[in-house]
């Protein structure tokens, strides 16, 4: 059997593996049923749906032919590194790192740091646009998570709110 679209086939395999992993991980929790959902219900549902979607996309990669064969190009290392780094920076900003003396900087500073580092993944970096986006995301996150959902986590740097 010949792969007719490499991108679709590999994407489908990736979705299938991630979905199966989520579904398998959800078995460690009480799943429950539709009437009384347990903590594993939603991850199980998302994992199963993602696995089904992945199988469909991989199957299409085997049977639907494209002009160029959907060849996979080179890996974009710069975006990959900066997007992963932005998530790590966000985690460090939210919780801090006491072992090196970095205090918790909170949600607002974390979102600004995340947005700035993630924006470096692109080909163009414009400070004005990045800061506007960071401000909109910070305000939206504050309104959603702190004001509406009343979640309790640090919003501002710990050395300011003591």
UniProtKB/TrEMBL annotation:
Report the domain of life of the source organism. Answer: Bacteria
Span-the-membrane segments of this chain are: 41-63, 75-94, 100-121, 130-149
Listed name of the protein: Tripartite tricarboxylate transporter TctB family protein
Instruction: Decide whether keyword Membrane is in the record.
Output: yes
**Keyword list, A-Z:** Membrane, Transmembrane, Transmembrane helix
Domain DUF1468 residue range list: 10-154
* Protein's organism: Ramlibacter aurantiacus
């Amino acid at each position: 059997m010949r792969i007719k679209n490499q991108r679709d086939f590999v994407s489908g395999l990736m979705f299938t593996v991630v979905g199966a992993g989520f579904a398998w991980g959800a078995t460690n929790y009480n799943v429950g049923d539709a009437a009384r959902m347990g903590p594993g219900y939603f991850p199980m549902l998302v994992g199963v749906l993602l696995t089904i979607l992945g199988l469909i996309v991989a199957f299409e990669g085997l049977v639907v032919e494209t002009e160029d064969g959907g060849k996979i190009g080179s890996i974009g290392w710069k975006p990959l590194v900066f997007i992963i780094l932005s998530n790590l920076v966000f985690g460090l900003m939210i919780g801090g790192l006491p072992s090196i003396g970095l205090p918790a900087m909170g949600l607002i500073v974390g979102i600004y740091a995340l947005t700035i580092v993630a924006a470096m993944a692109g080909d163009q970096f414009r400070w004005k646009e990045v800061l506007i986006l960071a401000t909109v995301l910070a305000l939206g996150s504050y309104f959603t998570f702190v004001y509406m959902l009343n979640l309790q986590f640090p919003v501002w740097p710990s050395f300011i709110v003591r």
